[in-house]
Amino acid sequence: MKTLNLGERSIALDKDGYLVDLDDWSTEVATALAAAEEIELSPEHWEVLELLRGFYNEFQLSPATRPLIKYTALKLGADKGNSLHLNRLFKGTPAKLAAKLAGLPKPTNCL
């Protein structure tokens, strides 16, 4: 099992780098996970991460790419809810990487 070390805290990650305990998530954890992916979180990133956390609270699952795009378009508008925008923010793997940074489980249909 992998760990993410934040000061005195050691946070358990699964083999793919997702949080083992979803309650370990915080903005500090998200920032550290993003740094490990060589991403500096912008307000646009945070907007999607908060949206994803809301989706998970509502449906108890992490959306795959198509539902993520549709949900983002529904909540944030077509200019942000499209594959080009989300791929740019999350290195071409928006469903997997955004879920990881949002402290959510890996989407079930993502390899």
UniProtKB/TrEMBL annotation:
Give the EC class as a word. transferase
Q: What is this protein called?
A: Sulfurtransferase
InterPro entries for the chain: DsrC-like_C, DsrC-like_dom_sf, DsrC-like_N, DsrC/TusE
A single GO BP: tRNA wobble position uridine thiolation
What does this chain do? Part of a sulfur-relay system.
One Pfam family matching this protein: DsrC
Query: Family per UniProt?
Result: Belongs to the dsrC/tusE family.
Q: What is its EC number?
A: 2.8.1.-
GO cellular component, alphabetical, reads:
cytoplasm
- Where is this chain's protein located in or outside the cell? Cytoplasm
Residues annotated as catalytic: 110 (cysteine persulfide intermediate)
Under NCBIfam families, the record lists:
dsrC_tusE_dsvC
Q: Which GO terms describe its molecular function?
A: sulfur carrier activity; transferase activity
**Cytoplasm in keyword set:** yes
Which UniProt keywords are given for this protein, alphabetically ordered?
A: Cytoplasm, Transferase
